[in-house]
Design brief:
This protein has 131 residues and is of the alpha+beta class. Helix content is 25%, strand content 35%. The chain has a 4-stranded antiparallel sheet with strand order 1-2-3-4, covered by helices on one side. It is globular. The structure holds zinc ion.
Length: 131
Amino acid sequence: MENLTKCPCQSNKLYIECCERYHLNKKTPQTAEQLMRSRYSAYTLVNIDYIVETTLPSQQKKLDKQAMQDWAKSTNWKGLKVIARNPHFAKNRATVKFIAYFETDKGVMEHHELSLFIFKENRWYFVDPNV
Ligand code: ZN
């Protein structure tokens, strides 16, 4: 019944009709929000290759894949809520504001983030503010 799994990005669609086609590289996300959602799904599925591939190419080598994998694996993701989106923040740039929920010993915690995305060579990339 794997095919009937709801997408972890909480779009209310099935995974096969939502982020799976991006994760399998069958399609590229058409908007920054789709990319952000597919990256969240990839974290929940510990698909670190996808996270790396969708980060700005000039930043990719600086990412610590092992640390990202350990973090994704040890985090119990609880959901995602998109708060605001600005698809025309600047030329070829968009922002998405969201909250990701995850469970800890102290209960469910919130991670708030305002992410920047750049449209380059026909696809969207995440700009990692920590690199
Ligand atoms: Zn999805």
